[in-house]
Amino acid sequence: MGNDSLQLNNMRKFYPAYLSYQYNNLISVGSVYVDNNTRCAFSNYADHSHMTTSAPGDGIIAYFPEKLQTLNERTGYAKMSGTSFSAPFVTRILALILAKNPSLTPSALKTILRDNLSVTPTAPNSVRYLKSLNELQLYLCQ
Questions:
Q1: CA 2 to CA 29: how far, in whole Å?
Q2: pTM
Q3: 10-residue block means of pLDDT along the chain (142 residues)?
């Protein structure tokens, strides 16, 4: 979705989220805070027809090249934030669902994802986010 804190409902040509107007199977991902599932201040957002879901994207510990870190902090990891860190959470869930049922179409995968979202009412609009991993694991065990 992007990290400009923009409401994208009426914006055209804002890629990659704009592609959802053309491709129904496109999954766009916003970012929520891990502790309360509210939209991260930096995350772009849109109505539910153009933004599929949100996932944790604030303070994510990720690989970071040591040579780009300061001398006293060379661990190979850094705490980072952004929708680029949210998307892999969604990809992981979809990969697990697809591994269980490899014949699912992209449309069916998106439907399963949408059916397993929670909604938190927050201003300026509600945020759809992934349910807990435990709930999705129960789905996978059916």
A1: 9
A2: 0.77
A3: 72 66 80 83 76 84 84 83 89 85 89 76 54 57 58
